[in-house]
Design a protein that fits this description.
The complex is a heterotrimer. Chain A contains 26 helices and 36 strands. By secondary structure, chain A is of the alpha/beta class. Chain A has a 7-stranded mixed beta sheet, with helices on both faces. Classes of the chains: A alpha/beta, B alpha+beta, C alpha/beta. Bound molecules: flavin mononucleotide, iron/sulfur cluster (SF4) and FE2/S2 (inorganic) cluster.
Chain lengths: ~900, ~150, ~425
Amino acid sequence: MATIYIDNKPYDADPSRNLLDVCLSLGFRLPYFCWHPALGSVGACRQCAVKQFKDEQDTQGKLVMACMTPAAEGTRISIDDPDAVEFRRNIIQGLMMNHPHDCPVCDEGGECHLQDMTVMTGHDYRRYRFDKRTFRNQYLGPFVNHEMNRCIQCYRCVRFYRDYAGGRDLDCFALRDIVYFGRREDGVLESEFSGNLVEVCPTGVFTDATLKQHYTRKWDLEFAPSICAHCSLGCNTSPGARYGTLRRIVNRYHSEINGYFLCDRGRYGYEFVNSPLRIRDVTWQGGVIDGAAGVERLSTLLAAGKVIGIGSPRASLEANFLLREAVGAANFFAGMADDELRLVRRILEIMQSGMASVPSLRDIELSDAVFVVGEDVSNTAPRMALSLRQSVRQQPIRSIEKLRIPVWNDNAVRDAVQSAKGPFYIASPYPTRLDGIATEVCRAAPDDIARLAFEVAEASDENSPAGRIAAALRNAQRPLVVSGTGLNNAAIVEAAARAAQALGAALSYVLPEVNSAGLAMMGGGTLAEAMEAVRGGAAETVIVLENDLYRRAPAEAVDALFRSARHVVALDHLTNGTTARADLVLPAATFAESAGTFVNNEGRAQRFFQVFIPHGEIQESRRWLRDAMLAAGRIEAEALDRLDGVIGALGRALPRFARVHEAAPPAAFRLVGKKVPREPHRYSGRTAMLANITVSEPKPPEDPDSALAFSMEGYSGQPPPPLIPFFWAPGWNSIQSLNRFQEEIAGPLRGGESGVRLLVPNGAGQQQAGVPPAFQPRNGERLLVPVYHVFGSEELSREAPAVASLAPGPYLALSPEDAKALGEDTAEVSIGGKTHRLPVLVISGLPEGVAGVPAGIPPFTGLSLPAWGKFSRMP
Amino acid sequence: MLTPEEQREIEQEAASYPERRAASIDALRIVQRRRGWVSDEALADVAELLGMSPAELESVATFYNLIFRKPVGRHVILICDSVSCWIMGYTKVRDHLKARLGINFGETTSDGRFTLLPIVCLGACDRAPVMMVDEDTHLDLTPARIDAILERYE
Amino acid sequence: MEKPLTARIRPDGEAVDLKAYERAGGYQALRKALLEKSPKELIEEVKDSNLRGRGGAGFPTGLKWSLVPTGDGTPQPRYVAVNADEMEPGTFKDRLLLEGDPHSVIEGAAIAVRAIEGSAAYIFLRGEYVLAAQRLRRAIGEAYAAGYLGKNVLGSGCDIEVHLHISAGRYMCGEETGLLNALEGKRANPRTKPPFPVASGLWGKPTVINNVETLANVPHIINNGAEWFKSLSRSKDGGTKLYGASGKVKRPGLWELPMGTTAREILEEHAGGMRDGLKLRGFLPGGASTDFLTAEHLDVKMDFTEVQKFGSRMGTGTIIVLDDATCPVGMTLNLEHFFAQESCGWCTPCWSGLSWAERILQAIEDGRGEDRDLDDLEAITKFVAPGNTFCALAPGAAEPLQSALKYFRGDFERHIREKRCPWPS
Ligand SMILES: Cc1cc2nc3c(=O)[nH]c(=O)nc-3n(C[C@H](O)[C@H](O)[C@H](O)COP(=O)(O)O)c2cc1C
Ligand code: SF4
Ligand code: FES
């Protein structure tokens, strides 16, 4: 710690940080633009100027940029110095020279950093009296809207998009006061992180194009802390709703997980919540009945016995647990494809064995040598790919230590490091978007990928690919192995663990879905067993929880299951194959309309809370189940009314979930006797928005499940992190208000980060799968591997229009050689007894004997991939 | 498509730097020398050859003023508009040129013969006013001399 | 009077070729540098000579070289970048050397490479210097052929490469860190300092950036010694200087004169004084980015310290003369137009302040000026003061503006009052 003086008062400061960072951490109001906590300092905007003095005697001082000045011992600065104040005001005047006066019609209005900073600096009169420069805007795709006239040339967008996220189609053009930030031509932004521009841009140049469809000011949204439901990483989000529809999602900072950024699937997948496919009514054999009747039916079925429940990896722990309670542990089945369930269980065992440490995304970012084993992270866990991109900078940054450039000095670091990258190895059957940062890429069939990783674990010869990988990891300070369930290959999972263990590396697995870990931990039988139970007559009623079984097993098997069951009950958000076959359909609340817990790929339990109260009969799955249990006379369900009660019962029933309640404060939690408001204090229209129904303002709805209130009243300070619905502080209306919520910039939120890791290493776990035999190509057949798509492969986000517009249709991916041999644009392939004619997509690099099909995209849902596909005419 | 000669010349330039993208400006100049300007297609081709994205190369190309991203005439006139030339009668020379060619800055004569552009100080201030036509520098300009000079460029 | 820089320059405007250069003692200094002197000795010699950078800032050249880390475990390779961007309006000195005596620049660069135990020099030449490019290319070829460049130069075991980079135009490329980015094929935005280029420059490697004229002096210093070099000067800064004059003087031109020659001597003796019927109203001593001085300052010794005493800088030493028949407002507008246009767009004070200043000046010149305009202009000059901006471009732009407001205030006021430019256009 160093002592620095700010306006003559001493403060403790971390000398490895810069003055802007320190001043903000200390709570000073110092304006800035080009600096960003995750992107570092570049000194372009000159907004953060302060006066620096040599010593106590120095009364002149000179202006310095706080963001470019280290908080070295004895540094003396003044924020209030009149020259500094005047200069900062002039900077805003310069920035505002060309800026339109369009705040009232600007999407950023009310959460605009430029507005905040303008107020902060006190600039209120524009002396500039000439024309403003104007630009043409671009079409940038379904996610991001472009309005260049609002640009203040802070360069944040390109620094994020290009330098941080590796995007190559957004850049800056021309110079002086007409620098243009955009693409070379109109078109969809290529990076799957483009949505972060909305938050990175301090003004309204890049705004959320989906929000525009149903625009609402930040202050008019009601928020709740939430968890992204679209992959296994569990990024923290802050969804906002109004009038009973979900309007948008923004990032909710978590220092260990998503930090400042989300992927576009996470940001824009939310629109499925508003989908026309939403189930809003209870139906019995196709006819609408009311909620009470629905409960009645379900209770009758429950009471009749012979009921099994099929849980879901996209449903909360609580919903799955209620199902398990309703049907009895012995009748609970996990609702994942069987091989997938086995794989996830094995991964959890490995994670718990202590063979390797389990890194957070933050740890992954700081890793300095990486081996990615058979997982297309950019498409299966996009936010992890963004962290991995930062990992290749670690070794080069260390190698320039002698230059003593502080890491926050971003351009200086980049100029010194240039294109140098740390060791990064990828083994994958097809090209991935991380290949560009890789030291070496190995293209191989799944089994050969496993063989390579096993070889890495043993390797000593540095001249083989495996040896090079082993050496790079062994010589690193923070080596990392990444793998996952993407290729659905037990040997890969095993081999990755062996390699991590042998090389002392951390080990991160990508799991299939948001709560795959939670569901796998809950136990229960396999889908095959469930089918067997029905076929054998042991069960007559099947309750399917938030799950489309057609995505879990081949259609014939699912059809058979539904045929043999006497009654099928489905609880879900959207109509799908399963709900179409169900006798009783109960409209289930989505993540945004419910509260619960997801367990992410680190084994971290995280709580999400209800954002808004949905229209129609929709209610949380666990409530449907609990109501039916009560109606069936199951007294024990009394205690399962509130979320806390469910979590308590879960912990008692399954001790591995004993700590789940620690993920967030209970519903009874109060701050100075108050709940935490979901709505900003400027929330408007409360007295009017229901006037068409009743002119007297109704009492805000109760929320028995959380310490959050559906109201603008309540505690106005900073709540504990799991309960922060949105970031706002006096004078800080934009997302930058986050600075006010952290202990130190880019550090944990005040009060400690949320979530509890449930998996405690226990030293158990034996190696299971051995080294598989080398892959053997077959004549006339190809091994069809699943090819993942960030937009399209995941079930729910597929139904969000913006995401859906970027999802590919079905195709057959062939190597150029195979495509040539085939000589046609479409190909006929039989898999699992069915023949499909599909357009051919050429992917160079596919290994011999391997082809690909898009994962999670019809008609390949429900197939267990990889699978051999027979071609009618292929050598 | 870049011609083989263009590619060869670009590769030659690239060889004198440790990173390929360093040759980006050389490469754009090489293309422009042969084609007069850099079209979108040419830019994309150069980008690919140097392992850059088109946007990255465009970002560079639009920074520099001697890279033409629009077609130009057969001859490009760069007239110095900086201070010494201004003192020495730039305005008259410029107005004469514009009138004579019937075009403004940034425009090309309808016969495609000349494009007129302003340029910063050409480093011949002792012989101001100055202009360049293609690769030739013309000194001590007067309206009268300009007519004779233009004659030389078909 | 010795004129080491220009003595070889041919009156017919042709370049000195390798033969002629060698005959005149060329490449002897490189030989000495490689075979007789250690890199440390080279740096000491240059340090002792008081050679200060001729690019405008006057940084001591020997000191700059000595800041490059050498020895075991220090970064390799190391580079020299020759700043031949010469785009400062009113400056036309490096062109003479590049076109007239290219080998002197190449030899200077090669010696600099040796002094920092580097491997290569890049000559960064502005695109419009077509003739210079041809001649440099030829000279570099000759030097390679003669073994002055390439592998194992003169049997010394040292490899020295010299590459010619031809730029595509932008004043910012002359700013030394902008130049580095431009050489790397990037936008010529300036780089963060520290680290300075001597520690982290081209491709992150230690790099010395020197002006053409600076390097052309180096062979002479190595040949004749530091004492000789200092003796050429009339000031503390060593050597001769290429001084120039443009504007309405009788004989505009460029002359090699002892460092510290007065502005009066340059303008009255060498440039022949003002054209008949004109009086000197002011002058920019060394290019567009220096403060105006007036007739009362004519006796200033043109060197890096003396000119500063009067609130200006020697800059590039090429004087631009404002006569009494030329509108000072128009001239200031012309200058600020240049700077605003060349702003790289990186830092706010520059891209916003200069474009604003240009518009105000245009309004005043067009007769649309307002009383408050002069306050706003004044404020802008403070806004873009040194330290407030990222690089020296904008502070350079402030220099002629602030001094014009000081010395020619009456002219500005008259424009505003009369709502027109009082000078016939
Ligand atoms: C905007 C700007 C333009 C410059 N242009 C040139 C130039 O064209 N040539 C030059 O030698 N120095 C130029 N300089 C100065 C260089 O930054 C640098 O100081 C010089 O090249 C160092 O060489 P020296 O030490 O030999 O003088 C410029 C500086 C600025 C701020
Ligand atoms: S002062 Fe700022 S905007 Fe101007 S050229 Fe320098 S860095 Fe660029
Ligand atoms: S935030 Fe410090 S200069 Fe932009």
